[in-house]
Amino acid sequence: MTPPPPHGLRVHGLRFAFGTLSVLPVKVSRWDREAARGGMLCAPLVGVALGCGAAVVALVLLFLGAGPLLAAVAGAAVPAVLTRGLHLDGLADTADGLGSGKPAEDALRIMKQSDIGPFGVITLVFVLLAQVAALARLYDDSWARGALATVVSAVAARLALTLAARTGVPAARPEGLGAAVAGVVPVRGAVAVALAVTGLAAAAGALLGTYDIARTALAVLAALAAAELLLRHCTRRFGGVTGDVFGGLAETAATTALVVLSLG
Q1: Which residue ranges traverse the bilayer (predicted)?
Q2: Is the pLDDT of residue 230 over 60?
Q3: What angle do CA 189, 193, 194 make, to 5 degrees?
Q4: CB within 8 A of 222, min separation 6: which ones?
Q5: What is the tens place of the pLDDT at every residue in 19-30?
Q6: What spatial distance separates the first Cα and last Cα of the chain, rounded to whole Å?
Q7: Is the pLDDT of residue 81 over 80?
Q8: Sign of CA dihedral 15, 21, 26, 28
Q9: Per-residue pLDDT, 243
Q10: Which of 35, 161, 199, 208 sits CB 3.0–4.6 Å from 212 for a disulfide?
């Protein structure tokens, strides 16, 4: 068996995860491959923190009589605020790069530009609409289902990043966040984290009923499958991953999880 990482390295991994994937005031003290590996393995924990924060705001609004729609808007908006829109920006840039139809080098240059093109705008609109619509359906059903979905989708989004950072997935550029985390996570480690998160999500679903065990686990697996399809397409299209691609994967996974949880 591989021995567990020393305590200091685990701390650096947590710092890396929260310092790069959220606006929480956590200082990244190490920016090397080992810290990046620990950080990407801890990425779902960032999802727990952001999802719980979003669920609390949504529930406060719901209990104050704001209604399920406004609670849903909060559930989608809080994670965006707590990441400075990092993943949404990455989604828009990835959509512009893919939609351009240009060779990899030109597409990567388009993605690096500060403005958002038509493909990015359209993608952002429909993704956010889907997230809000799914959450509104869930919060209208019950506050517990809405809160659970808010947390599960946030965790599934960051779990997709763990899997995307696995060994064998190359970086499209030699610099940037994508290059820093590409290929740092051993495949066995990524799979182990995915199984643990899926199991815990199913256990959380059990609190709402037997049917929710399968539905919650299916939501996580469907989120990972959708993110994997996008990852493979981007890898073929751009020659690897970038920070923008990671953002696109996170939003794709979150939206897929919410849609699955809203069904039935």
Answers
A1: 41-63, 69-86, 116-136, 142-165, 177-207
A2: yes
A3: 115
A4: 256, 257, 260
A5: 999 998 888 888
A6: 42
A7: yes
A8: positive
A9: 92
A10: 208
User: DSSP class of residue 85?
Assistant: T
What would the two tokens of residue 235 be?
A: 């890898």
pLDDT of residue 4: 52
Cα–Cα distance between 70 and 63 in angstroms, integer?
A: 11
User: Cα dihedral sign for 241, 245, 247, 250?
Assistant: negative
Given phi > 0 = left and psi -120 to 50 = alpha, else beta, which region is 17? alpha
| Sign of the torsion formed by the C-alpha atoms of 207, 210, 212 and 215 | positive
Per-residue tokens: 162: 């763990």
CA distance 177 to 117: 22
Q: Which residues contact 246 (CB under 8 A, 6 or more apart)?
A: 87, 90, 161, 164, 177, 178, 181
Query: Which tokens is 166 given?
Result: 């696995």
Residues forming beta bridges with residue 174, ordered by sequence position: none
Cβ contacts of residue 199 below 8 Å, gap of 6+?
A: 217
In the chain, which ranges are E strands? none
pTM above 0.85, yes or no: yes
Decide: helix, strand or coil at residue 263.
Answer: coil
